[in-house]
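Q: Joint fold for the lines below.
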Amino acid sequence: MVVWTDQERACIQDIFSKLNYEEAGPKALQRALIVYPWTQRYFASFGNLYNAEAIMSNPRVAAHGIVVLHGLDRAMKNMDDIKNTYAELSVLHSDKLHVDPDNFRLLADCLTIVIAGTMGTSFTADVQAAWQKFLAVVVSALRRQYH
Amino acid sequence: MSLSAKDKLAVKTFFGKVGAKAEDIGSDALARTLFVYPQTKTYFSHWADLSPGSPQVKKHGLTVMNGVLSAVELIDDLKGGLLTLSELHAFMLRVDPANFKIINHNLLVVLSLMFPEDFTAEVHVSVDKFLAQVSLALSEKYR
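A: Joint structure:
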């Protein structure tokens, strides 16, 4: 059972309240596809991913980035039971999408870096700690139904 | 995943720009390492004060960042150039190499928050590759 302190809850809610989903989601996914190009294997149907410019202007990448962030929003709204909230998503990623779970960590790291860039110095060490704990729980829940 | 000419240029250009802030970057990255990954504190049990603003964290953060900046100058031969530092980490400090990934991650976070305009995705990939190569060079003498 994940135990959240009041401070951690407040931190996570605060980050999401300041986040522009339509900006951060696309930026994080674009960054993952550029920084870890092997992640492109899951997006063969998205069209042109040949270089950084193509990835940054690809509308399907942007749209999917927003989908991902709305998924994280659901975790934030169900912080005390992310495990069950994500059960179906986990099955989806394992059985239908066949995504290597290590990719969840890569995308999570890219999102952290995008948020650090947006929040600047207000992304303090304790905010970072709470945020990374949240993402670790999310990643763990997404891995859970793999078999 | 070795460094292309494009990577080397991106790394040299970016660190040329941000190098003046070495102490701020290094000490913030080190502070975050100690705070967000508390197991790393085990290497500093001899320090009186492990909190973010402490003089020891600042001083050591600068030492680490100066190491990174000197690696930029040695980018064409990291293994050879970082040999002495590798011996230090392998035989004296005996830092588990898994920790290099941790400090690298926190360096990226700090670079992103301090230089959001310059730390583009393309710079990010080159710097990430560079830091991975530095870690490999530092691990060279371990066994």
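Q: Anything notable?
A: The interface with chain B takes residues 30-31, 34-35, 52, 56, 109, 112-114, 116-121, 123, 125-126, 128-129, 132 of chain A (CB under 8 Å). DSSP finds eight helices and no strands in chain A.
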